[in-house]
Task: structure prediction
Amino acid sequence: MELKFLQSISIAFLAASNIAQAADLLETYHAAQTGDPVFAAARATQQAGQEKLAQGRALLMPSINLNANTTFNDQTTNYQAGSPFSAANGNKRYNSNGYGVNLTQPLFRAQNWLAYTETQLQVAQADAQFKAAEQDLVLRVAQNYFDVLIAQDSVQLVEAQKTAITEQMAQAKRNFEVGTATITDTLEAQSRLDLVAAQEVAAKNNLDVKRSSLQQLTNSVSNDLRPLGAGFKLEAPKPANIEQWVDNALIANPQITIAQVSAGLAEKEVSRNQAAHLPTLDLVANYAKNSASGGSFGSNDNTNKSVGVQLNVPLFQGGAVSSKSREALANQERSKQDLENARRSVTTQTRQAYLGVVSGMAQVQALQQALASSQSLLDASKLGQEVGIRTNLDVLNAQQQLYSTRRDLYQAQYNYLLSQLRLKAAVGGLGEPEVNQVNLALH
Result:
């Protein structure tokens, strides 16, 4: 008895030590922010998208180019006899050099201005996509975190069930030896034990798979995670109005923002392609200096300076401009349909998340009651077996029901927390504070 007491204390101490060192959901989320390659790619995509604004602004700014040249010349001159230039006959070899600077400042280019306004929308699109990636990271971390927890719970429940069945089988053997039970009780217990042993192997393999998936997100190994504790509470959505949640989602959901920006870009693209029919006007300035060390007229230096306005009127480009305009109109219609599809999808997702929270609460409460009933059934079955009104099979069935109910309860609790996160993601309000709120449910 004293040995069992000391073992219980040791087990409790080790469990407390593991919990103290275990990673929680918030720590796992922080690790995923730096370790997940998908999120890193999304961050790089946002940074690339923000550069679009500078590129669009450059279309309105002057462009300055420097050019230079050096040339070796081998010149042979033959004038006819009697020509006043016949004295210049002969072969001359010399170098000519030159450099120049030209500046072009757009004065009127409708396409460039519209392209600049497009880049402003492209930056907004990149920001919305990154916000969606941030929320997606939270959901993926939470999903993988709770997948590991339920896998751990399954292993622990199978091991506990295995221990209970082993004790039940030992009792059946003792009863058979003293003649108070038949060999059937022992065989029933052995059959259940073999089945649980197979379930234990499958549960441990599943745990390894789930841990690997979480490791892929965080790029780190954490075999111990904080489970649900006393901080777990059931809270109804606020406001408790599904239509209000849908309305908020249609305003703030990142997927809708992305679709709206895409529709705006498509509209701008139509205008930009149509503007290709318009003339362009540029201010052009040039400075050039050329020199030659020889030639028919000897060494010379030339300097040229010019400033002017250049008008370009597109007349015909093989039908390319009209074709691109029609293409842009078709893409505009596509973007409108994509926006409508995004609104419908977000509406459905928001309703599902809201109902997931509400039904999750009801399911957790029902399973909590079912767990208490299953425990009472097991206790009554064991007592009934002692007085001879229940069989060994009744006890085994009651044990199976108890562990199955407990596993279902754990799963329902995790699903409830995930539904809460999905509901907040639907309205664009999922971030670190929401992760920390769920984290308070862990111990």
